[in-house]
Known about the structure:
With 221 residues, the chain is of the alpha/beta class. Helix content is 26%, strand content 26%. Strands 3-2-1-9-10-11 form a 6-stranded mixed sheet. The chain has a 5-stranded mixed sheet with strand order 4-5-6-8-7, with helices on one face. Helix 3 packs across helix 4 (79-104).
Amino acid sequence: MLLLCISDIHGHLDALRAVLATAERRAFHKLLVAGTSSFQARSRWRPAAALRGGRRHGAGLTDRAVATIDPAGLQPRSDHERERLDRMKTTRDALGELILQRIRRLPTHQRVPLEDGGELLLVHGSPADPGEALSHDMSDPEINALIADDTADIIVCGASHLPFDRTVGGVRVVNVGSVGEAPGAGPRVAHATWIESTPRGIHVEQIVVPLESAPEAEARV
């Protein structure tokens, strides 16, 4: 079973299209999305339309904020806050109530059985707190505290926008980075991760898709 794992699209449909175009060269079975899909409304962005096929989708903090907070009831304290509330309203209007209802129903934790008998946990931030990211610069004790007593064999997450792959206390933690807002001073890129599950175990491959060039170009991290 081949899984394509992504996170933090933030409404960047061009970046999502580039990742999916690259991924089409391999016949993957499931698409796992670790949240934060819909913050910026671009090109009449529709998560349900863009993410077709077998998929598991978790909710990020921004997804839930867009779906549950009515900006009309908030008073901005600065021009920056006013701009963010205007953008949230534009996004909510573009998504429409049907999509907002679907986002509200997204779970914070999704579990996927693996072919070797193990279990994958899909979460935006961490098992203990979906809103707190597991980041590359954390110590093992810090990561252990956010894994808490979860029994998953592999945790697939996003939120920090920086990909990494570490094993802490016998649990493999794979942060898949960001599709729409990967950090860096150079040309724009998008992150994605392949996870292949077999009866013998799993194989993880993290990739970078350049966005200024043809989607055929792909580099490993």
